[in-house]
Amino acid sequence: MTVLWNRWRILLTILIIIFVVETGAMFLLPVLLPSDIHPWIEAVADAMLLSMGSLPLLWFLLIQPMHAETRKWSHHSRLLMAALDEHALVTITDAQGRIIHANDSFCQISKFPVEEVLGQDHRIVSSGDHSKSFMKDLWDTIKRGEPWHGDVCNCAKDGSRYWSDTTIVPFRDETGRMMQYVALRADITERVKAQEALKISEAQADAANHAKSGFLANMSHEIRTPMTAILGFAENLLDADQSESESLNCIYTIRHNGEYLLGIINDILDHSKIEAGKMVTEQIACKPCQIIADVASLVRARADAKGLAFNIDYIGAIPETIVSDPTRMRQILINLIGNAIKFTEEGAVRLIVRVVGAAEDDPGGSPKEPYMQFDVLDTGMGMTDEQAAVLFQPFTQADTTTTRKFGGTGLGLTISKRFAELLGGEIRVVDSEVGVGTRFRATVATGPLEGVTMLQDPMSSTVGAVIDKSDGLTPILPTELYGIRILLAEDNPTNQVLLVGILKKAGAEIIVVKDGKLALDAALAARDDGDSFDVVLMDMQMPVMDGYEATGRLRQKGYTGAIIALTAHAMASDREKCIKAGCDDYATKPINRTKLIGTIRRHSAPAEAATL
Fold first, then answer.
1. Quick check: 503 and 510 in contact, CB under 8 A?
2. How many other C-beta atoms can be found within 10 angstroms of the C-beta atom of residue 565?
3. Tens-place pLDDT, residues 365-423
4. Residues facing residue 356 across a β-bridge
5. DSSP classification of residue 249
6. pTM confidence score
7. Three-class SS of residue 151?
8. Which residues contact 429 (CB under 8 A, 6 or more apart)?
9. pLDDT category, 205, cuts 50, 70, 90?
Protein backbone atom coordinates (compact mmCIF):
# COMPACT_ATOMS: atom_id res chain seq x y z
CA MET A 1 0.00 0.00 0.00
CA THR A 2 2.90 2.37 0.86
CA VAL A 3 4.59 1.71 -2.50
CA LEU A 4 1.39 2.46 -4.39
CA TRP A 5 0.90 5.74 -2.47
CA ASN A 6 4.47 6.83 -3.17
CA ARG A 7 3.97 6.22 -6.87
CA TRP A 8 0.78 8.35 -6.90
CA ARG A 9 2.56 11.14 -4.97
CA ILE A 10 5.43 11.25 -7.46
CA LEU A 11 3.02 11.38 -10.40
CA LEU A 12 0.98 14.18 -8.76
CA THR A 13 4.12 16.22 -8.17
CA ILE A 14 5.17 15.90 -11.80
CA LEU A 15 1.74 16.94 -13.05
CA ILE A 16 1.69 20.01 -10.75
CA ILE A 17 5.09 21.09 -12.04
CA ILE A 18 3.93 20.69 -15.64
CA PHE A 19 0.75 22.66 -14.86
CA VAL A 20 2.71 25.51 -13.28
CA VAL A 21 5.21 25.67 -16.16
CA GLU A 22 2.52 25.60 -18.81
CA THR A 23 0.45 28.26 -17.03
CA GLY A 24 3.46 30.55 -16.74
CA ALA A 25 4.28 30.07 -20.39
CA MET A 26 0.76 30.96 -21.39
CA PHE A 27 1.08 34.32 -19.64
CA LEU A 28 4.68 35.14 -20.53
CA LEU A 29 4.89 34.13 -24.19
CA PRO A 30 2.45 36.82 -25.49
CA VAL A 31 4.40 39.51 -23.66
CA LEU A 32 7.92 38.38 -24.55
CA LEU A 33 7.40 37.33 -28.18
CA PRO A 34 6.16 39.26 -31.21
CA SER A 35 2.52 38.81 -31.94
CA ASP A 36 3.11 37.01 -35.25
CA ILE A 37 5.37 34.37 -33.69
CA HIS A 38 4.09 33.54 -30.26
CA PRO A 39 0.96 31.59 -31.29
CA TRP A 40 3.11 29.04 -33.20
CA ILE A 41 5.66 28.84 -30.39
CA GLU A 42 2.86 28.54 -27.89
CA ALA A 43 1.36 25.60 -29.81
CA VAL A 44 4.72 23.80 -29.92
CA ALA A 45 5.29 24.45 -26.26
CA ASP A 46 1.85 23.18 -25.40
CA ALA A 47 2.49 19.99 -27.40
CA MET A 48 5.83 19.44 -25.70
CA LEU A 49 4.40 20.03 -22.26
CA LEU A 50 1.50 17.67 -22.94
CA SER A 51 3.96 14.99 -24.13
CA MET A 52 6.06 15.44 -21.04
CA GLY A 53 2.96 15.04 -18.92
CA SER A 54 1.74 11.94 -20.78
CA LEU A 55 5.01 10.02 -20.48
CA PRO A 56 4.90 9.51 -16.71
CA LEU A 57 1.19 8.90 -16.97
CA LEU A 58 1.86 6.22 -19.64
CA TRP A 59 4.68 4.72 -17.55
CA PHE A 60 2.51 4.66 -14.46
CA LEU A 61 -0.65 3.30 -16.04
CA LEU A 62 0.68 0.88 -18.73
CA ILE A 63 4.41 0.27 -19.09
CA GLN A 64 5.31 -0.17 -15.42
CA PRO A 65 2.47 -2.66 -14.67
CA MET A 66 3.37 -4.67 -17.80
CA HIS A 67 7.01 -4.71 -16.80
CA ALA A 68 6.13 -5.79 -13.27
CA GLU A 69 3.86 -8.58 -14.60
CA THR A 70 6.65 -9.75 -16.88
CA ARG A 71 9.08 -9.87 -14.01
CA LYS A 72 6.54 -11.73 -11.89
CA TRP A 73 5.96 -14.39 -14.56
CA SER A 74 9.67 -14.67 -15.16
CA HIS A 75 10.18 -15.29 -11.45
CA HIS A 76 7.35 -17.85 -11.38
CA SER A 77 8.82 -19.59 -14.42
CA ARG A 78 12.20 -19.84 -12.74
CA LEU A 79 10.56 -21.30 -9.61
CA LEU A 80 8.59 -23.78 -11.71
CA MET A 81 11.68 -24.95 -13.59
CA ALA A 82 13.61 -25.24 -10.33
CA ALA A 83 10.81 -27.35 -8.87
CA LEU A 84 10.72 -29.56 -11.97
CA ASP A 85 14.50 -29.95 -11.95
CA GLU A 86 14.36 -30.93 -8.30
CA HIS A 87 11.63 -33.54 -8.59
CA ALA A 88 11.48 -34.63 -12.24
CA LEU A 89 13.63 -35.77 -15.13
CA VAL A 90 13.01 -33.15 -17.82
CA THR A 91 13.85 -33.22 -21.50
CA ILE A 92 12.59 -31.03 -24.33
CA THR A 93 12.83 -32.03 -27.99
CA ASP A 94 12.16 -30.21 -31.20
CA ALA A 95 9.49 -31.27 -33.66
CA GLN A 96 11.85 -33.92 -35.11
CA GLY A 97 12.44 -35.47 -31.68
CA ARG A 98 15.99 -34.13 -31.20
CA ILE A 99 16.80 -33.25 -27.59
CA ILE A 100 17.31 -29.50 -27.13
CA HIS A 101 17.21 -29.48 -23.31
CA ALA A 102 17.99 -32.04 -20.61
CA ASN A 103 18.11 -31.19 -16.92
CA ASP A 104 20.68 -32.43 -14.41
CA SER A 105 18.36 -35.10 -12.98
CA PHE A 106 17.95 -36.72 -16.39
CA CYS A 107 21.71 -36.68 -16.97
CA GLN A 108 22.39 -38.17 -13.54
CA ILE A 109 20.02 -41.12 -13.94
CA SER A 110 20.95 -41.79 -17.58
CA LYS A 111 24.67 -41.33 -16.76
CA PHE A 112 25.08 -39.35 -20.02
CA PRO A 113 26.73 -35.89 -19.80
CA VAL A 114 24.50 -33.19 -21.25
CA GLU A 115 26.79 -32.56 -24.22
CA GLU A 116 26.31 -36.20 -25.33
CA VAL A 117 22.53 -35.91 -25.05
CA LEU A 118 21.85 -32.65 -26.88
CA GLY A 119 21.10 -33.20 -30.55
CA GLN A 120 20.32 -36.88 -30.03
CA ASP A 121 16.88 -38.46 -29.96
CA HIS A 122 15.60 -40.61 -27.09
CA ARG A 123 16.87 -43.80 -28.68
CA ILE A 124 20.12 -43.00 -26.89
CA VAL A 125 18.48 -44.31 -23.69
CA SER A 126 16.25 -46.95 -25.28
CA SER A 127 16.31 -50.30 -23.47
CA GLY A 128 14.69 -52.22 -26.29
CA ASP A 129 12.38 -53.86 -23.75
CA HIS A 130 9.18 -52.35 -25.10
CA SER A 131 7.24 -53.78 -28.02
CA LYS A 132 6.80 -52.05 -31.35
CA SER A 133 3.10 -51.56 -30.63
CA PHE A 134 3.98 -49.80 -27.35
CA MET A 135 6.26 -47.30 -29.11
CA LYS A 136 3.80 -46.80 -32.00
CA ASP A 137 1.01 -45.91 -29.57
CA LEU A 138 3.31 -43.37 -27.86
CA TRP A 139 4.24 -41.58 -31.10
CA ASP A 140 0.75 -41.70 -32.59
CA THR A 141 -0.62 -40.05 -29.44
CA ILE A 142 1.83 -37.14 -29.23
CA LYS A 143 1.75 -36.50 -33.00
CA ARG A 144 -2.00 -35.98 -32.67
CA GLY A 145 -1.16 -33.25 -30.16
CA GLU A 146 -2.38 -35.27 -27.19
CA PRO A 147 -0.37 -35.86 -24.00
CA TRP A 148 0.91 -39.44 -23.47
CA HIS A 149 1.42 -41.08 -20.09
CA GLY A 150 2.97 -44.44 -19.18
CA ASP A 151 5.81 -46.34 -17.51
CA VAL A 152 8.98 -46.61 -19.58
CA CYS A 153 12.07 -48.75 -19.07
CA ASN A 154 15.25 -47.02 -20.24
CA CYS A 155 18.91 -48.02 -20.40
CA ALA A 156 21.64 -45.87 -18.87
CA LYS A 157 25.06 -45.38 -20.42
CA ASP A 158 26.56 -48.12 -18.22
CA GLY A 159 23.92 -50.63 -19.33
CA SER A 160 21.82 -50.52 -16.16
CA ARG A 161 18.04 -50.38 -16.46
CA TYR A 162 15.85 -47.75 -14.84
CA TRP A 163 12.10 -47.14 -14.93
CA SER A 164 10.29 -43.80 -15.14
CA ASP A 165 6.69 -42.68 -14.86
CA THR A 166 6.63 -40.57 -18.03
CA THR A 167 4.34 -37.81 -19.32
CA ILE A 168 5.04 -36.33 -22.78
CA VAL A 169 3.25 -33.08 -23.67
CA PRO A 170 3.31 -31.76 -27.27
CA PHE A 171 3.29 -27.97 -27.98
CA ARG A 172 2.20 -26.22 -31.21
CA ASP A 173 3.00 -22.72 -32.44
CA GLU A 174 0.38 -20.06 -33.34
CA THR A 175 -0.09 -21.61 -36.76
CA GLY A 176 -0.88 -25.01 -35.29
CA ARG A 177 2.38 -26.58 -36.42
CA MET A 178 4.13 -28.95 -33.96
CA MET A 179 6.87 -27.02 -32.25
CA GLN A 180 8.34 -29.21 -29.48
CA TYR A 181 7.71 -32.03 -27.00
CA VAL A 182 8.28 -31.72 -23.26
CA ALA A 183 8.86 -34.97 -21.35
CA LEU A 184 8.47 -35.04 -17.58
CA ARG A 185 9.57 -38.20 -15.80
CA ALA A 186 9.63 -39.54 -12.23
CA ASP A 187 12.10 -42.28 -11.26
CA ILE A 188 10.09 -45.37 -10.21
CA THR A 189 12.88 -47.96 -10.46
CA GLU A 190 12.68 -48.99 -6.81
CA ARG A 191 8.88 -49.23 -6.98
CA VAL A 192 9.07 -51.47 -10.06
CA LYS A 193 11.72 -53.64 -8.39
CA ALA A 194 9.52 -53.95 -5.31
CA GLN A 195 6.54 -54.91 -7.48
CA GLU A 196 8.61 -57.50 -9.34
CA ALA A 197 9.93 -58.89 -6.05
CA LEU A 198 6.37 -59.07 -4.75
CA LYS A 199 5.24 -60.92 -7.88
CA ILE A 200 8.11 -63.39 -7.51
CA SER A 201 7.33 -63.82 -3.82
CA GLU A 202 3.65 -64.38 -4.56
CA ALA A 203 4.51 -66.88 -7.30
CA GLN A 204 6.85 -68.72 -4.95
CA ALA A 205 4.26 -68.70 -2.19
CA ASP A 206 1.65 -69.96 -4.62
CA ALA A 207 4.00 -72.70 -5.81
CA ALA A 208 4.81 -73.60 -2.20
CA ASN A 209 1.11 -73.78 -1.35
CA HIS A 210 0.48 -76.00 -4.34
CA ALA A 211 3.45 -78.17 -3.38
CA LYS A 212 2.27 -78.48 0.21
CA SER A 213 -1.28 -79.19 -0.88
CA GLY A 214 0.05 -81.88 -3.15
CA PHE A 215 2.25 -83.14 -0.34
CA LEU A 216 -0.69 -83.39 2.07
CA ALA A 217 -2.75 -85.26 -0.50
CA ASN A 218 0.19 -87.55 -1.20
CA MET A 219 0.94 -87.95 2.51
CA SER A 220 -2.67 -88.91 3.12
CA HIS A 221 -2.27 -91.62 0.50
CA GLU A 222 1.10 -92.72 1.89
CA ILE A 223 -0.27 -93.04 5.43
CA ARG A 224 -3.64 -94.53 4.56
CA THR A 225 -2.15 -97.25 2.35
CA PRO A 226 -0.13 -98.99 5.09
CA MET A 227 -2.81 -98.19 7.66
CA THR A 228 -5.33 -100.03 5.50
CA ALA A 229 -3.07 -103.05 5.50
CA ILE A 230 -2.44 -102.83 9.26
CA LEU A 231 -6.11 -102.53 10.19
CA GLY A 232 -7.23 -105.08 7.61
CA PHE A 233 -4.75 -107.75 8.62
CA ALA A 234 -5.38 -107.02 12.30
CA GLU A 235 -9.04 -107.84 11.67
CA ASN A 236 -7.97 -111.02 9.88
CA LEU A 237 -6.11 -112.10 13.02
CA LEU A 238 -9.43 -112.06 14.86
CA ASP A 239 -10.84 -114.59 12.40
CA ALA A 240 -11.10 -117.95 14.18
CA ASP A 241 -10.73 -119.80 10.87
CA GLN A 242 -7.23 -118.40 10.29
CA SER A 243 -4.49 -121.01 9.98
CA GLU A 244 -1.22 -120.56 11.83
CA SER A 245 0.66 -119.71 8.63
CA GLU A 246 -2.02 -117.17 7.64
CA SER A 247 -1.82 -115.59 11.09
CA LEU A 248 1.98 -115.35 10.84
CA ASN A 249 1.61 -113.76 7.42
CA CYS A 250 -0.79 -111.19 8.92
CA ILE A 251 1.70 -110.41 11.67
CA TYR A 252 4.61 -109.95 9.23
CA THR A 253 2.45 -107.72 7.01
CA ILE A 254 1.40 -105.57 9.95
CA ARG A 255 5.01 -105.26 11.07
CA HIS A 256 6.27 -104.41 7.57
CA ASN A 257 3.65 -101.70 7.07
CA GLY A 258 4.24 -100.35 10.57
CA GLU A 259 7.94 -99.96 9.76
CA TYR A 260 7.01 -98.19 6.53
CA LEU A 261 4.84 -95.75 8.49
CA LEU A 262 7.68 -95.15 10.91
CA GLY A 263 9.96 -94.35 7.97
CA ILE A 264 7.50 -91.70 6.75
CA ILE A 265 7.34 -90.17 10.23
CA ASN A 266 11.15 -90.17 10.48
CA ASP A 267 11.40 -88.37 7.12
CA ILE A 268 9.00 -85.69 8.33
CA LEU A 269 10.91 -85.32 11.59
CA ASP A 270 14.25 -85.09 9.78
CA HIS A 271 12.87 -82.41 7.48
CA SER A 272 11.41 -80.51 10.45
CA LYS A 273 14.76 -80.63 12.24
CA ILE A 274 16.54 -79.36 9.15
CA GLU A 275 14.04 -76.51 8.71
CA ALA A 276 14.40 -75.56 12.38
CA GLY A 277 18.21 -75.71 12.21
CA LYS A 278 18.24 -78.46 14.84
CA MET A 279 19.90 -81.16 12.76
CA VAL A 280 23.33 -82.10 14.09
CA THR A 281 25.91 -84.53 12.73
CA GLU A 282 28.74 -86.54 14.25
CA GLN A 283 32.35 -86.29 13.19
CA ILE A 284 33.91 -89.64 14.05
CA ALA A 285 36.26 -92.08 12.39
CA CYS A 286 34.34 -94.49 10.15
CA LYS A 287 35.09 -96.96 7.36
CA PRO A 288 33.52 -95.87 4.03
CA CYS A 289 33.93 -99.31 2.42
CA GLN A 290 32.13 -100.93 5.34
CA ILE A 291 29.30 -98.37 5.06
CA ILE A 292 29.01 -99.11 1.33
CA ALA A 293 28.90 -102.86 2.05
CA ASP A 294 26.13 -102.31 4.62
CA VAL A 295 24.14 -100.25 2.12
CA ALA A 296 24.69 -102.79 -0.66
CA SER A 297 23.36 -105.62 1.51
CA LEU A 298 20.19 -103.60 2.17
CA VAL A 299 19.45 -102.43 -1.38
CA ARG A 300 20.55 -105.49 -3.33
CA ALA A 301 17.39 -107.38 -2.34
CA ARG A 302 15.27 -104.58 -3.82
CA ALA A 303 17.24 -104.70 -7.06
CA ASP A 304 16.99 -108.50 -7.23
CA ALA A 305 13.21 -108.32 -6.69
CA LYS A 306 12.90 -106.13 -9.80
CA GLY A 307 15.39 -108.14 -11.85
CA LEU A 308 17.92 -105.29 -11.92
CA ALA A 309 21.68 -105.63 -11.82
CA PHE A 310 23.37 -103.68 -9.00
CA ASN A 311 27.13 -103.09 -9.25
CA ILE A 312 29.72 -101.19 -7.22
CA ASP A 313 32.87 -99.83 -8.89
CA TYR A 314 35.80 -98.33 -6.99
CA ILE A 315 38.07 -95.99 -8.95
CA GLY A 316 41.52 -95.64 -7.43
CA ALA A 317 42.54 -96.15 -3.82
CA ILE A 318 39.98 -95.55 -1.09
CA PRO A 319 40.89 -94.44 2.47
CA GLU A 320 40.38 -97.11 5.10
CA THR A 321 38.87 -94.50 7.43
CA ILE A 322 37.48 -90.99 7.10
CA VAL A 323 36.08 -88.51 9.64
CA SER A 324 32.36 -88.10 9.03
CA ASP A 325 28.91 -89.18 10.23
CA PRO A 326 28.39 -92.83 9.23
CA THR A 327 24.64 -92.78 9.95
CA ARG A 328 23.96 -89.77 7.70
CA MET A 329 26.28 -91.10 4.99
CA ARG A 330 24.41 -94.39 5.05
CA GLN A 331 21.08 -92.55 4.76
CA ILE A 332 22.34 -90.57 1.75
CA LEU A 333 23.47 -93.67 -0.13
CA ILE A 334 20.36 -95.70 0.73
CA ASN A 335 18.15 -92.86 -0.48
CA LEU A 336 20.01 -92.28 -3.75
CA ILE A 337 20.38 -95.97 -4.62
CA GLY A 338 16.86 -96.77 -3.40
CA ASN A 339 15.45 -94.02 -5.65
CA ALA A 340 17.45 -95.30 -8.60
CA ILE A 341 16.04 -98.80 -8.09
CA LYS A 342 12.50 -97.46 -7.57
CA PHE A 343 12.48 -95.48 -10.83
CA THR A 344 14.22 -98.12 -12.97
CA GLU A 345 12.08 -100.82 -14.57
CA GLU A 346 14.83 -102.64 -16.45
CA GLY A 347 18.57 -102.48 -16.86
CA ALA A 348 20.97 -101.75 -14.02
CA VAL A 349 21.90 -99.46 -11.16
CA ARG A 350 25.56 -98.66 -10.59
CA LEU A 351 27.48 -97.02 -7.75
CA ILE A 352 30.88 -95.49 -8.62
CA VAL A 353 33.11 -94.52 -5.68
CA ARG A 354 36.31 -92.49 -5.75
CA VAL A 355 38.29 -89.95 -3.72
CA VAL A 356 38.78 -86.52 -5.25
CA GLY A 357 41.62 -84.27 -4.14
CA ALA A 358 43.16 -80.89 -4.95
CA ALA A 359 45.71 -82.26 -7.43
CA GLU A 360 42.99 -83.54 -9.76
CA ASP A 361 40.62 -80.58 -9.46
CA ASP A 362 43.00 -77.65 -9.52
CA PRO A 363 46.57 -78.56 -10.48
CA GLY A 364 48.96 -76.12 -8.89
CA GLY A 365 46.17 -74.53 -6.88
CA SER A 366 45.93 -74.07 -3.16
CA PRO A 367 45.42 -77.31 -1.17
CA LYS A 368 41.81 -78.34 -0.71
CA GLU A 369 40.21 -80.84 1.60
CA PRO A 370 39.68 -84.14 -0.23
CA TYR A 371 36.21 -85.62 -0.44
CA MET A 372 34.45 -88.88 -1.22
CA GLN A 373 32.49 -88.87 -4.46
CA PHE A 374 29.57 -91.26 -5.00
CA ASP A 375 27.99 -91.42 -8.46
CA VAL A 376 24.70 -93.31 -8.72
CA LEU A 377 23.74 -94.20 -12.31
CA ASP A 378 20.52 -95.83 -13.45
CA THR A 379 18.81 -96.79 -16.69
CA GLY A 380 15.43 -95.55 -15.52
CA MET A 381 12.83 -93.08 -16.67
CA GLY A 382 15.09 -89.99 -16.60
CA MET A 383 14.02 -86.37 -16.22
CA THR A 384 13.68 -83.15 -18.17
CA ASP A 385 15.73 -80.09 -17.17
CA GLU A 386 12.60 -78.52 -15.69
CA GLN A 387 11.93 -81.56 -13.53
CA ALA A 388 15.56 -81.73 -12.38
CA ALA A 389 15.46 -78.04 -11.41
CA VAL A 390 12.78 -78.62 -8.74
CA LEU A 391 13.86 -82.09 -7.68
CA PHE A 392 15.45 -81.04 -4.38
CA GLN A 393 12.55 -78.87 -3.24
CA PRO A 394 10.62 -80.35 -0.31
CA PHE A 395 7.35 -82.19 -0.99
CA THR A 396 8.29 -82.36 -4.69
CA GLN A 397 8.68 -85.23 -7.14
CA ALA A 398 9.21 -85.05 -10.89
CA ASP A 399 5.43 -84.87 -11.48
CA THR A 400 2.16 -86.07 -10.04
CA THR A 401 2.18 -89.24 -12.15
CA THR A 402 5.47 -90.18 -10.51
CA THR A 403 3.87 -89.88 -7.09
CA ARG A 404 0.86 -91.92 -8.10
CA LYS A 405 2.93 -94.67 -9.71
CA PHE A 406 5.87 -94.98 -7.33
CA GLY A 407 4.67 -93.42 -4.07
CA GLY A 408 6.91 -91.59 -1.64
CA THR A 409 6.72 -88.31 0.28
CA GLY A 410 9.02 -86.18 -1.88
CA LEU A 411 11.26 -85.50 1.15
CA GLY A 412 14.04 -88.05 0.68
CA LEU A 413 16.25 -86.10 -1.72
CA THR A 414 15.70 -82.84 0.16
CA ILE A 415 16.84 -84.47 3.38
CA SER A 416 19.77 -86.25 1.73
CA LYS A 417 20.97 -83.03 0.08
CA ARG A 418 20.96 -81.25 3.43
CA PHE A 419 22.80 -84.16 5.07
CA ALA A 420 25.47 -83.99 2.36
CA GLU A 421 25.87 -80.24 2.93
CA LEU A 422 26.22 -80.80 6.68
CA LEU A 423 28.97 -83.30 5.87
CA GLY A 424 30.87 -80.76 3.79
CA GLY A 425 29.61 -81.84 0.36
CA GLU A 426 26.58 -81.69 -1.90
CA ILE A 427 24.15 -83.69 -4.03
CA ARG A 428 23.32 -82.76 -7.60
CA VAL A 429 22.05 -84.18 -10.86
CA VAL A 430 25.04 -84.56 -13.19
CA ASP A 431 22.93 -85.44 -16.22
CA SER A 432 19.58 -86.99 -17.01
CA GLU A 433 17.75 -87.93 -20.21
CA VAL A 434 14.14 -88.97 -20.45
CA GLY A 435 13.90 -92.67 -21.23
CA VAL A 436 17.66 -93.18 -20.86
CA GLY A 437 18.52 -92.66 -17.22
CA THR A 438 20.00 -90.34 -14.60
CA ARG A 439 23.37 -89.79 -12.92
CA PHE A 440 23.33 -88.38 -9.38
CA ARG A 441 26.50 -87.28 -7.61
CA ALA A 442 26.92 -87.04 -3.83
CA THR A 443 30.06 -85.80 -2.11
CA VAL A 444 31.14 -85.70 1.55
CA ALA A 445 34.34 -84.37 3.08
CA THR A 446 36.81 -86.98 4.29
CA GLY A 447 38.67 -84.90 6.83
CA PRO A 448 42.50 -85.01 6.86
CA LEU A 449 43.94 -88.13 5.23
CA GLU A 450 47.52 -87.79 6.44
CA GLY A 451 48.64 -91.15 7.82
CA VAL A 452 45.43 -92.93 6.73
CA THR A 453 45.90 -96.28 4.99
CA MET A 454 44.71 -96.19 1.36
CA LEU A 455 43.07 -99.42 0.22
CA GLN A 456 44.33 -100.33 -3.24
CA ASP A 457 41.74 -103.09 -3.63
CA PRO A 458 38.71 -101.74 -1.75
CA MET A 459 36.32 -104.46 -2.89
CA SER A 460 38.36 -107.32 -1.48
CA SER A 461 39.26 -105.31 1.60
CA THR A 462 35.64 -104.69 2.45
CA VAL A 463 34.08 -106.84 5.13
CA GLY A 464 30.49 -107.43 4.06
CA ALA A 465 27.77 -106.60 6.56
CA VAL A 466 25.87 -109.56 7.91
CA ILE A 467 22.16 -108.93 7.65
CA ASP A 468 19.50 -111.12 9.22
CA LYS A 469 17.17 -111.72 6.28
CA SER A 470 14.59 -113.63 8.26
CA ASP A 471 11.27 -111.99 9.05
CA GLY A 472 11.20 -113.34 12.57
CA LEU A 473 12.04 -111.52 15.79
CA THR A 474 14.80 -112.35 18.21
CA PRO A 475 13.05 -114.27 21.01
CA ILE A 476 12.99 -112.77 24.49
CA LEU A 477 14.72 -114.95 27.08
CA PRO A 478 13.17 -114.99 30.58
CA THR A 479 16.64 -114.61 32.11
CA GLU A 480 17.53 -111.32 30.39
CA LEU A 481 16.01 -109.11 33.12
CA TYR A 482 15.60 -111.73 35.82
CA GLY A 483 15.40 -110.27 39.31
CA ILE A 484 15.31 -106.64 38.12
CA ARG A 485 12.58 -104.49 39.71
CA ILE A 486 11.16 -101.86 37.38
CA LEU A 487 8.78 -98.98 38.04
CA LEU A 488 6.87 -98.18 34.84
CA ALA A 489 5.24 -94.73 34.67
CA GLU A 490 2.98 -94.76 31.60
CA ASP A 491 -0.48 -93.23 31.19
CA ASN A 492 -1.54 -95.04 28.00
CA PRO A 493 -3.25 -98.39 28.83
CA THR A 494 -2.25 -100.01 25.52
CA ASN A 495 1.40 -99.10 26.02
CA GLN A 496 1.18 -100.36 29.60
CA VAL A 497 0.04 -103.79 28.38
CA LEU A 498 2.70 -103.88 25.66
CA LEU A 499 5.60 -102.89 27.91
CA VAL A 500 4.52 -105.09 30.82
CA GLY A 501 4.27 -108.05 28.45
CA ILE A 502 7.77 -107.48 27.03
CA LEU A 503 9.43 -106.90 30.40
CA LYS A 504 7.73 -109.79 32.18
CA LYS A 505 8.79 -112.15 29.41
CA ALA A 506 12.34 -111.00 30.06
CA GLY A 507 11.95 -111.91 33.75
CA ALA A 508 11.51 -108.45 35.26
CA GLU A 509 9.26 -107.53 38.18
CA ILE A 510 6.98 -104.62 37.16
CA ILE A 511 5.05 -102.00 39.13
CA VAL A 512 2.84 -99.74 36.95
CA VAL A 513 1.64 -96.18 37.72
CA LYS A 514 -0.27 -93.85 35.43
CA ASP A 515 1.17 -90.39 36.10
CA GLY A 516 4.30 -88.61 37.28
CA LYS A 517 2.99 -87.82 40.77
CA LEU A 518 2.34 -91.50 41.50
CA ALA A 519 5.76 -92.37 40.08
CA LEU A 520 7.41 -89.80 42.38
CA ASP A 521 5.62 -91.17 45.44
CA ALA A 522 6.26 -94.83 44.55
CA ALA A 523 9.99 -94.36 43.86
CA LEU A 524 10.59 -92.41 47.10
CA ALA A 525 8.54 -94.86 49.17
CA ALA A 526 10.47 -97.85 47.82
CA ARG A 527 13.78 -96.14 48.54
CA ASP A 528 12.75 -95.23 52.06
CA ASP A 529 11.69 -98.85 52.67
CA GLY A 530 15.13 -100.07 51.59
CA ASP A 531 13.80 -101.79 48.47
CA SER A 532 14.57 -99.32 45.68
CA PHE A 533 13.64 -100.02 42.10
CA ASP A 534 16.56 -100.98 39.87
CA VAL A 535 15.19 -98.87 37.00
CA VAL A 536 12.41 -96.31 36.59
CA LEU A 537 10.92 -96.19 33.08
CA MET A 538 9.49 -92.67 32.93
CA ASP A 539 7.11 -91.60 30.18
CA MET A 540 7.74 -87.87 29.69
CA GLN A 541 4.21 -86.87 28.60
CA MET A 542 1.72 -87.71 31.40
CA PRO A 543 -1.22 -86.01 33.16
CA VAL A 544 -1.13 -84.57 36.70
CA MET A 545 2.69 -84.35 36.63
CA ASP A 546 4.79 -85.00 33.54
CA GLY A 547 7.99 -87.02 33.45
CA TYR A 548 10.29 -83.98 33.36
CA GLU A 549 8.91 -82.57 36.61
CA ALA A 550 8.74 -85.99 38.32
CA THR A 551 12.37 -86.74 37.40
CA GLY A 552 13.52 -83.30 38.53
CA ARG A 553 11.80 -83.68 41.91
CA LEU A 554 13.26 -87.16 42.42
CA ARG A 555 16.78 -85.81 41.85
CA GLN A 556 16.09 -82.86 44.16
CA LYS A 557 15.16 -85.33 46.91
CA GLY A 558 18.42 -87.21 46.47
CA TYR A 559 17.12 -90.13 44.42
CA THR A 560 20.13 -91.81 42.75
CA GLY A 561 18.49 -94.76 41.00
CA ALA A 562 18.49 -95.20 37.23
CA ILE A 563 15.75 -93.31 35.34
CA ILE A 564 15.20 -94.05 31.65
CA ALA A 565 13.02 -91.64 29.65
CA LEU A 566 10.29 -93.00 27.36
CA THR A 567 9.10 -90.53 24.74
CA ALA A 568 7.59 -90.34 21.28
CA HIS A 569 9.76 -87.29 20.56
CA ALA A 570 12.84 -88.29 18.62
CA MET A 571 14.83 -85.08 18.12
CA ALA A 572 18.30 -84.60 19.56
CA SER A 573 17.02 -81.59 21.51
CA ASP A 574 14.40 -83.85 23.18
CA ARG A 575 17.08 -86.26 24.32
CA GLU A 576 19.10 -83.39 25.75
CA LYS A 577 15.99 -82.11 27.53
CA CYS A 578 15.44 -85.53 29.14
CA ILE A 579 19.08 -85.82 30.24
CA LYS A 580 19.01 -82.26 31.57
CA ALA A 581 15.91 -83.12 33.61
CA GLY A 582 17.88 -85.87 35.35
CA CYS A 583 17.31 -89.00 33.25
CA ASP A 584 20.21 -91.42 32.77
CA ASP A 585 19.15 -92.59 29.31
CA TYR A 586 16.52 -92.26 26.64
CA ALA A 587 14.30 -94.67 24.64
CA THR A 588 12.00 -93.61 21.81
CA LYS A 589 8.59 -94.85 20.83
CA PRO A 590 7.73 -97.05 18.99
CA ILE A 591 9.66 -99.29 21.33
CA ASN A 592 12.36 -101.56 19.97
CA ARG A 593 12.21 -104.32 22.56
CA THR A 594 15.74 -105.56 21.98
CA LYS A 595 17.19 -102.06 22.45
CA LEU A 596 14.97 -101.37 25.46
CA ILE A 597 16.03 -104.57 27.24
CA GLY A 598 19.68 -103.79 26.47
CA THR A 599 19.31 -100.25 27.85
CA ILE A 600 17.69 -101.55 31.05
CA ARG A 601 20.47 -104.14 31.51
CA ARG A 602 23.13 -101.40 31.20
CA HIS A 603 21.52 -99.33 33.95
CA SER A 604 20.34 -102.11 36.32
CA ALA A 605 22.21 -103.17 39.46
CA PRO A 606 25.46 -105.01 38.47
CA ALA A 607 25.18 -107.46 41.36
CA GLU A 608 21.76 -108.68 40.28
CA ALA A 609 22.75 -108.81 36.62
CA ALA A 610 25.68 -111.02 37.54
CA THR A 611 23.34 -113.72 38.88
CA LEU A 612 21.95 -114.41 35.40
1. yes
2. 26
3. 444 679 999 999 999 888 888 887 777 765 555 444 444 444 455 567 877 888 898 89
4. 371
5. H
6. 0.47
7. strand
8. 383, 388, 391, 438, 439, 440, 441
9. confident
